[in-house]
Inverse folding.
């Protein structure tokens, strides 16, 4: 039987990922990951916290240089806990905001592996895939 507290804590990681990423809270964002985490996002694979911090700071510099803010929206999150390991999946929408105008930049799915480390859930692996073949009608 799954401990619902674990499920809530894992759901919270999805929200914290979005909030810390969007506010460029690099240290807090990277603290959501294990030391040996892998983040595989369209366009790159980042291994370990040092690579994640570099990615986070480079993204901020790239966006802020163009006067762009970002906003992640997470939905349809589902997690399955198995002891100190868990798997999860959640849909995302990624908006860029320039001059106060939001534009959908990407939408897709994060597929995750979590590990409990020192009593806290962390992202061990996150694979993000854009659903670029979608054609909304």
């Amino acid at each position: 039987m799954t401990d619902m507290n674990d499920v809530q804590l894992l759901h919270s990681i999805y929200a914290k990922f979005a909030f810390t990423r969007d506010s460029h809270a690099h240290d807090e964002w990277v603290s959501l990951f294990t030391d040996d985490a892998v983040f595989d996002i369209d366009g790159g694979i980042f291994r370990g916290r040092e690579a994640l911090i570099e990615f986070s700071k480079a993204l901020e510099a790239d966006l802020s240089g163009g006067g762009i803010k970002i906003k992640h929206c997470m939905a349809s999150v589902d997690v399955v806990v198995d002891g100190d390991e868990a798997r999860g999946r959640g849909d995302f929408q990624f908006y860029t905001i320039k001059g106060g105008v939001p534009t959908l930049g990407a939408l897709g799915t994060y597929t995750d592996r979590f590990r409990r480390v020192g009593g806290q859930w962390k992202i061990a692996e996150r694979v993000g895939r854009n659903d670029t073949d979608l054609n909304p009608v």
